[in-house]
């Protein structure tokens, strides 16, 4: 909700700025129509772009209000305005970049892994033996915060199935604590082991998925930023050609739409990158430091 609020605020402000620019364009086009310099079609096209931006501004304003309500519900009280994020860069500034060489041991801090270990301990299991058997001790990240080859190697190529073979070097349960004749206890013990192994697999899978997404986010962001630059330059050139009577207003309108859409897509890409940072922080048990 926090990151979504930051993104929706940027989208709202973008729509408002676009509306103001389009409103001025409509006024100028109206004066030009009165002077006989443009056609009524040009004015209607300018009004169409203006009203679309106005509708977007109203829609994002409503979404921002919903986001603020969601945050209030989440924490149990209204969040002071001074604490709300104005933009995405403010919302994730405290999350450090992911370094290379993060060990898999950070996953042990995950709540679901800790819960599974507590259940094993309740069944008189040796947590050290369980970790030795089911927990791969590898490096999670390579350079630039991408997934390491050893992490990718845990999942079969193509099928994505778990390939780590448990190393049963030490007995997990103390045979003297649980009688083998107690069928109910034996079944529960096996359930706990299976649940623990599944939890470990899920932890590594979620980490691998988040790192796989991160591997392409930098490229996506770079492409979106260059698209915004190209769209802005295209709009500038189209405006100059329109003012000199070379192109029609429709060409200028298309350039405006492209720039507006490129700005929106860049905000969405930045939201994806910020959300990925938070996801990595969560799946790695609360950080990697």
Molecular structure report:
The protein folds into 2 domains: 1-94; 97-289, Outer membrane efflux proteins (OEP) (Up-down Bundle), CATH 1.20.1600. It is built from 8 helices and no strands. It has helices at residues 2-34, 40-75, 88-91, 111-122, 127-134, 149-152, 183-243, 249-283. Helix 1 packs antiparallel against helix 8, helix 2 (40-75) packs parallel to helix 8 and helix 7 packs antiparallel against helix 8. The protein is elongated and about 90 Å long. Mean pLDDT is 83; it is low at 168-182.
Keywords summarizing the entry:
Outer membrane efflux proteins (OEP); mainly alpha; 289 residues; 2 domains
What is the mean predicted local confidence, pLDDT?
A: 83
Helix tally?
8
Helix content: 55-70%
Q: Could you give the distance between the termini?
A: 25 Å
Provide the low-confidence segments as ranges.
168-182
CATH-derived architecture of the largest domain: Up-down Bundle
Give the name of the CATH superfamily of the largest domain: Outer membrane efflux proteins (OEP)
As for the number of domains, it is 2
Query: Could you give a short account of the major beta sheet?
Result: none
Radius of gyration, in Å, reads 28 Å
